């Protein structure tokens, strides 16, 4: 994005950046008409990455729906429902992040800038790992209690 | 096909198809609550909205697949955020289906 170029005047450009985010999602080619159209293969690769993230999000949503419907009631009250809602939330966040990352990558490619890096995959991995550890603990507690 | 180096367009078309199939899985999972509790109006509304979203996703993927057949293939624009927003709507409506 423009950040590297506008570091000195961060505060004034930040608001503009935020306004442009939505427009950028819907029309990365037009906002603003800078740079050059990259090789279509790069754009298609970016699109496939987006689709892979959307599938990840859809899988999380499916997991949430399956949790709520097929798990027996868990030892802790509302744990099942909480798990389902957490998975649905995670799926929604993944979908939003996917389109944002797609738009920023598309823009960076037009401008010939460095592709945007992201901590999101690491954060998602940690959240999923934490969730499974918590579940393992509840299952163990349940087993010991019986 | 010499016009599609690395089969980029082909792979993208298949990726759209996979994603539409994943959406189908979510839509089918969301269908069950309304079958087990057919008297709940709220569940009916949320479930039918999910079905509409699913149909929209399949339609978008189909249209996009056609757009990929041109030479050179045109990059995606509004199809991408539309797909993401429908996925987000799935999450919200799925939550409603569960919580209601």
From TrEMBL, chain B:
InterPro entries: DUF202. Residues 4-63 form the DUF202 domain. It is a multi-pass membrane protein. It is found in: Endomembrane system. Keywords: Membrane, Transmembrane, Transmembrane helix. It comes from the Bacteria. It holds the Pfam family DUF202. Signal peptide: none annotated. The keyword Transmembrane applies. The chain crosses the membrane at residues 46-62, 82-99. This is DUF202 domain-containing protein. It comes from Paractinoplanes deccanensis.
